[in-house]
Specification:
The complex is a heterotrimer of chains A (296), B (373) and C (414).
Chain A lengths: L2 H32 L6 H17 L4 H24 L7 H23 L15 E3 L2 E3 L1 H23 L1 H11 L1 H6 L4 H27 L6 H15 L4 H21 L9 H15 L14
Antiparallel strand pairs in A: 1-2
Chain B lengths: L6 H16 L1 H36 L3 H26 L7 H17 L5 H23 L4 H21 L1 H4 L12 E2 L2 E2 L3 H21 L4 H11 L1 H6 L4 H27 L9 H14 L5 H18 L6 H15 L7 H6 L7 H8 L13
Antiparallel strand pairs in B: 1-2
Helix pairs in contact in B: 2-8, 3-8, 3-11, 3-12, 3-13, 4-5, 4-6, 4-11, 5-11, 9-11, 12-13, 13-14
Chain C lengths: L1 H16 L5 H17 L20 E7 L6 H20 L8 E7 L4 H13 L5 E4 L3 H14 L3 E3 L5 H4 L6 E3 L4 H16 L3 E7 L2 H13 L6 E8 L7 H8 L5 E5 L4 H12 L5 E2 L7 H7 L7 E5 L10 H18 L5 H20 L4 H9 L4 E3 L2 E3 L14 E7 L2 E4 L2
Parallel strand pairs in C: 1-2, 1-3, 3-4, 4-5, 6-7, 6-8, 8-9
Antiparallel strand pairs in C: 10-13, 11-12, 13-14
Helix pairs in contact in C: 1-2, 3-13, 4-5, 7-8, 10-11, 13-14
The chains are: A mainly alpha (296), B mainly alpha (373), C alpha/beta (414).
Chain lengths: 296, 373, 414
């Protein structure tokens, strides 16, 4: 394989991987505060993309459309928490997860009723030719996705480590009851988390729509891959989510590139999941997760 | 275990130990009587339910209704398995659609490619699924919570991809056509009424087995390990083995459901056996309720009948309403539909207490023990 | 049964109210309606003039299974709309055999199991004399054993070869060009117009894309073509540069992309990004404006096979031209949208059945079966149909055209 082709596979992996990483961040946020895997996470990504397209075609400049879409989806995320998660704060985690399954069905169908079934596109944030390294190319939009992902990770690290509220969120994650006893408003922390997670997802949706388009049904695959990325990275760590996302993207594209036979791309998800399984069996806490203390 | 608001639960778990210690002879008797009564009541319910289910074709000959009921029975089988896995063994699986797929494809390929008798195919496919379940279950069931969810989900995806990609064997996305119907004593079960009786008999046998489980050695071990895995294992209970047992049984149930599906519809293609079905199976089991095996009947019934009813009104809104109803059911009936009548009648305390608490427990996950950055 | 009668009466009452446009007809319809209600079902007095006699009696029921929701909804939605419109149209023209027509539409949610339930309902509950559908091949294949067992004619709107290649086909007819036909059209173009021999295939992993691939692999040699690379993707995949890079390294002279939106549009953009300038040959899955909207500049120069309805001016047969233009106008008036290929399948399904029933003179399944097999030269959006005892596809390669995208619009490619 030529260097150009190899680099191209790496860039392809980074392009898909950055999308998975951004989605995985949203999973991580909610999991951290509540222990819930939000099956509607991919739908928030989808909503972000579609809302931005609507605002943009309604005349808003791209930047305004992007911010507006994030704001709209954040409100949806807050409402989702208030209406569906809040009443179940004391129920089992399983019941909470099933609610997110219901929400994903409802949100997907609602999006179909609002936006129709056709995929839609958004112009790239910066026009211009693809960037070229040794003949391998990458579109500028991918740089945008990576940049925003990095910004969000840094912001989250600062938030968790340096702010009181961030420490409160971490306390809730470690032991919700103790946190409540210490006077931390658990309900508000959960609300905040869902809002933030929806905002991150929406930002992801806006950023990837110029690359891969968006339709009401796009959320399912993105959500699945984002979940896989979050697990691969070790649930709970923002840096792990990003590492997991990029690793998953690279796994997929390199398995297409390195397998010699024609038609290998059909197996790329199988290979990615197989390696994910092997990682889990060898290191049950994910790549960057910490060893869980066995409680006796 | 401690999650927010589960303080009283964590508390009650220790309280339970205290109570068990102070029960004494009188307590045992009280408990025994309650158990006998609930056992008799359970048997009566099962007999009545079986009677109704099996005699339906006598007064309902419309094959439209019969096909809905057939799909109900087919959905019920894996839901029972998941009810046991989630409710009794406390393990989650997001890959059970793969076992349905293995059963369906096993039946379809063994009969159409190798001319096997359909019943032999059902049996062999179930055997194959059991084997696969052992292979995946041994390493996967060591994982906790969401990691187990991911492992089973990944397994399901891999099976689905193989069904699509191994075209020479499976026919790829074209699927398998002309699958022969089941036969019984020379009668073809292409007749919807005969099929109804057979598919419901199979589902009822599974239901009976599941209802009996708590009174078996495995069932008691499961109850123990569900309360506290560490205590159970230190008492010499082979935790991994019992979990695996339930996992394999649930895989067999799912596989048989897949076989029935293949021989009933006579055509299968891979699309239907993906993550979506796996997730909906878990949703059905939880919505029905995990406290009792009857939850599976409620859950499968709701998942099959509700879209059918909703679609009568406006197909575009079906999934929207369905999704919202899932949310509403979980909010107002966290123990699931099976807990609803008792809840409404204020009879919750008459449920065996082991079972009532299990429903609120946290079968998927032991979060408190994990650290994160 | 009672339900059907009640529905029929309701429909009848609805017709009796008539439309506002034709005041003269309204009165005759009104009288026809009132005579009928007073005399009852046995009345045979509806010979009121030969132009528009209001249909009377028990309705003739067609049952339709479409994928109005779920992943295939983009296909099934317009089929549903077209069927609803056609029901009204048929009845405005006096129904069939003087009886009103009722098209009962069931949604299978793109799920073959649901299609089984729906078909049973349509036959048992609604008393359908013929079944239309399904939208997707898996549903059609799941419905096939039921209609074959019951002996009810089924006209499918889906394209998989197996539907009419695998027995039994006695009760199954097809309206869309089957996959083999679309592939034949595209490959003819590749070998004759592009004049190349080495092709690569990029296809969707779904039934549509996979079926395209296996048909291409089967017939490439007949056109002197060699498939040097084949890769696949999932419909909603983020980025296709990886499979395209792999394809590029095999140095094909043309790329055939078989799939439905948005995948083919992602592929077109990624080819631009990679600087791949070999010809892009699409499938009829991109015969819609969405592809052009998504791919933008990258769509320029893409060619694909399509039914003639996409560019009605290309229709040479005057009868077909009239039918198609009439259908497009009526559909636009009814729904405010341009009909797509799938709406065309619905039109042909209803039209072929109606034609067969008129010729048969009864609604007995065996008679409809025979009449369908005798269909010759029936023209509709999908082409000119000639069914026979052995040919239940009815179309030929010439019923398809090759289209090129130029300046954001479609032109004939040959």
């Amino acid at each position: 394989m030529s260097l150009q082709d190899f680099l191209q596979f790496v860039f392809a992996g980074i392009t898909s991987g950055s999308v998975y990483a951004l989605t995985a961040l949203g999973f991580t946020l909610i999991y951290n505060a509540t222990g819930i895997i939000n099956f509607a996470q991919g739908e928030f990504v989808m909503l972000g993309g579609l809302a931005a397209v609507s605002l943009h075609s309604g005349g808003a400049p791209l930047a305004l459309a992007a911010i507006g879409a994030v704001a709209v989806v954040t409100v949806v995320g807050l409402l989702f928490e208030l209406l569906a998660i809040r009443p179940l704060l004391n129920a089992s985690v399983l019941a909470q997860i099933i609610v997110t399954v219901g929400a994903s069905l409802a949100l997907r169908t609602a999006a179909m009723l609002i936006w129709g079934r056709e995929a839609v596109a958004l112009p790239a944030f910066t026009e211009g030719a693809p960037l070229s390294v040794f003949g391998a190319t990458v579109v500028p939009q991918t740089v945008w996705v990576l940049g925003v992902t990095a910004l969000i990770v840094i912001a989250l690290q600062v938030f968790y480590r340096r702010t009181l509220l961030g420490k409160a969120v971490r306390a809730c994650a470690v032991n919700p009851m103790a946190a409540r006893l210490l006077g931390i408003p658990y309900g508000r922390v959960v609300l905040l988390t869902f809002g933030a997670s929806a905002a991150v997802a929406a930002a992801g949706g806006v950023l990837i729509t110029p690359i891969s388009f968006m339709s009401y049904s796009s959320g399912a695959l993105i959500g699945l891959k984002g979940f896989a990325a979050a697990i691969l990275g070790g649930l709970g760590s923002p840096a792990g989510a990003v590492a997991g996302g990029l690793a998953l993207g690279l796994l997929e594209s390199l398995s297409v590139g390195l397998l010699p036979w024609s038609g290998a791309s059909g197996y790329k998800d199988a290979i990615a999941f197989l390696i994910l399984l092997l990682v889990l069996f060898a290191r049950p806490q994910g790549l960057l997760g910490q060893v869980s203390a066995q409680k006796v | 275990m401690p999650r927010f608001g589960q303080g009283e639960r964590a508390g009650s778990a220790t309280g339970e130990a205290v109570k068990a210690g102070e029960v004494g002879p009188g307590g045992w008797e009280r408990r025994g009587r309650g158990r006998a009564w609930s056992w008799a009541r359970g048997n009566l319910a099962f007999l009545l339910f079986s009677l109704v289910a099996l005699t339906v074709p006598l007064y309902l000959t419309n094959s439209y209704y019969l096909s809905i009921l057939a799909f109900f029975a087919i959905r019920l089988m894996p839901t029972i398995g998941l009810n046991l896995l989630l409710g009794q063994a406390g393990q989650i699986s997001l890959g059970h659609a793969a076992f349905i797929g293995l059963g369906a494809y096993g039946s379809a390929l063994l009969t159409t490619r190798w001319g096997l008798d359909p019943w032999a195919a059902v049996f062999l496919a179930a055997l194959l699924s059991a084997l696969v379940a052992v292979l995946i279950g041994v390493p996967a069931l060591r994982l906790k919570g969401h990691y187990l969810a991911m492992a089973t989900l990944g397994f399901g995806e891999i099976v689905l991809i193989l069904l699509v990609q191994l075209k020479g064997l499976t026919g790829g996305t074209d699927g398998v056509v002309s699958i022969p119907p089941l036969e019984l004593g020379g009668w073809s079960l292409a007749d919807p009424r005969l099929f109804h009786v057979v598919v419901w008999s199979a589902a009822l046998i599974m239901l009976r087995m599941a209802l009996n489980l708590p009174r078996t050695r495995t069932g008691r071990a499961l109850i123990a390990l569900h309360r506290t895995e560490i205590a159970a294992s230190s008492l010499g209970i082979d935790v991994a083995f019992h979990k695996l047992q339930v996992f394999v049984v649930s895989a067999i149930f799912a596989s048989i459901a897949g076989s029935f599906l293949a021989h009933y519809v006579m055509f299968i293609s891979p699309e239907g056996f993906g993550v979506t079905l796996s997730v909906l199976l878990v949703a059905g089991a939880v919505i029905g309720g995990l406290a009792t095996v009857w939850g599976a009947v409620w859950g499968a019934g709701l998942m099959v009948l509700l879209p059918e009813v909703l679609a009568r009104y406006n197909e575009d809104y079906t999934l929207l309403v369905f999704g919202l109803l899932v949310i509403v059911v979980m909010i107002f009936l966290p123990e699931g539909l099976a807990g609803a009548p008792a809840r409404l009648l204020g009879l919750r305390r008459t449920l065996p207490d082991t079972v009532a608490r299990r429903s609120q427990g946290e079968p998927v996950e032991d979060r408190g023990s994990e650290c994160r950055s | 049964m009672a339900l059907v009668v009640v529905l029929g009466l309701l429909l009848f009452a609805g017709l009796g109210c008539g439309s506002d446009e034709t005041t003269t007809d309204e009165t005759t319809e009104d009288t026809a309606a009132s005579t009928d209600t007073s005399v009852g079902e046995s009345s045979d007095t509806s010979e009121a003039g030969d132009e528009v006699a209001a249909p009377t009696g028990e309705p003739i029921v067609f049952g339709a299974v479409v994928s109005a929701t779920g992943p295939a909804a983009a296909l099934g939605e317009q089929e549903r709309d077209a069927l609803e419109m056609l029901e009204g149209q048929l009845n405005d023209r006096g129904g069939l055999l003087g009886r009103p027509v009722e098209i009962v539409i069931e949604d299978d949610q793109s799920n073959p199991n649901e299609a089984v339930t729906a078909t049973n309902k349509l036959i048992q509950q609604d008393g359908a004399v013929a079944i239309i559908g399904g939208t997707i091949s898996p549903s059609t294949l799941a419905m096939k054993p039921i209609t074959a067992r019951e002996g009810i004619p089924q006209v499918t709107m889906s394209a998989a070869n197996a539907i009419t290649d695998e027995p039994p086909i006695e009760w199954m007819w097809r309206t869309p060009p089957k996959d083999a036909l679309a592939v034949a059209r595209a490959l003819t173009h590749v070998s004759e117009e592009l004049g190349v021999t080495r092709i690569a295939v990029l296809h969707d992993e779904n039934a549509f894309g996979s079926s395209g691939l296996s048909e291409i692999e089967k017939s490439a040699a007949d056109y002197g073509l060699e498939v040097v690379a084949k890769e696949s993707y999932k419909t909603d995949e983020t980025d296709l540069t990886a499979p395209l890079t792999k394809i590029r390294s095999s140095e094909p002279e043309a790329l055939v992309v078989w799939g439905t939106n948005p995948g083919p549009a992602v592929a077109a953009k990624n080819m631009d990004q990679l600087g791949m300038d070999i010809p892009y040959v699409g499938s009829h899955g991109i015969a819609n404006m969405t592809f052009i909207d998504l791919a933008g500049e990258a769509a320029e120069g893409v060619v694909f096979p399509a039914g003639k309805m996409l560019i009605p001016e290309t229709i040479t047969d005057p009868a077909q031209k009239e039918v198609v233009e009439g259908f497009i106008a009526a559909f636009e008036e009814a729904t405010g949208q341009k009909p797509n290929t799938f709406a065309g399948h619905a039109f042909d399904s209803v039209g072929l059945l109606a034609d067969a029933i008129e010729r048969a003179g009864t609604t007995e399944p065996g008679d409809i079966q025979q009449a369908l097999n005798e269909t010759t030269g029936w023209a509709g959006p999908d082409g000119i149909f000639n069914y026979s005892e052995t040919d239940h596809d009815g179309l030929e390669v010439d019923d398809l055209i090759m289209v090129r995208i130029e300046g954001g619009s479609w032109v004939l490619a040959e």
